[in-house]
Amino acid sequence: MCVASRKRLRGWTCFRTLSAVSTASTAMSFEWPWQYNFPPFFTLQPNVDTRQKQLAAWCSLALSYCRHHKLYTLDVMEAQESPVFNNKKIERKLSIEAIQVVFEELRKKGNLEWLDKNKSRCLVMWRRPEEWGKLIYQWVSKNGMVNSVFTLYELSNGDDTEGEDFHGLEEWMLLRSLQALQTEGKAEIITMDDGKGVKFF
């Protein structure tokens, strides 16, 4: 497959946020856990054991929701008004402070990174870079593309990868995934005329 013949596009990274997901589409397609319709779930409990179970449930819900809608960046203020933290049916929403506690718990688990000192925006990793790297390399091997060169755009937005889990992966996560493969000696990130690319081994 000739690299020169493939389509390339500059500035292709687009951050999809919680506000881009409509309540209607979410309600129809996402399966909510039972706790979501339980009012006390939206107030952090004082008992230590109960709170730990509650936070674990919130972390699981947040990651599942982001995975379902392929969300990679979160804004704390937007989050409070999004369906995941605001159940309009029972008129309950998680407070900003509680959302930050949930996000901090996700950070401790390695699923989130803050983008600013004020902890108002963050990157969410519902699948870790190493896991993405494994999926990408499996696709490369399965299609006999070892020793091939790709642009980052081709990997995440090209026609060849449509239907793959990593199709639409944002650039920052794609780069981390490829860096993980590079560490394993399975890929090398290279500089191309119109940005970065990668060669697989």
TrEMBL record:
InterPro entries found in the cross-reference section: ESCRT-II_cplx_Vps25-sub, ESCRT-II_cplx_Vps25-sub_N, WH-like_DNA-bd_sf, WH_DNA-bd_sf
Keyword Protein transport attached: yes
One GO term of the biological process aspect: macroautophagy
GO molecular function: protein homodimerization activity; structural molecule activity
Principal cellular location given in the protein's record: cytoplasm
Top-rank lineage group of the source organism: Eukaryota
GO cellular component: ESCRT II complex
Keyword annotations from UniProtKB, A to Z: Cytoplasm, Protein transport, Transport
Localization per record: Cytoplasm
Pfam families given in the database record: ESCRT-II (PF05871)
Entry annotated with the keyword Repeat: no
Family: Belongs to the VPS25 family.
Protein's UniProt name: Vacuolar protein-sorting-associated protein 25
Species of origin: Amphiprion percula
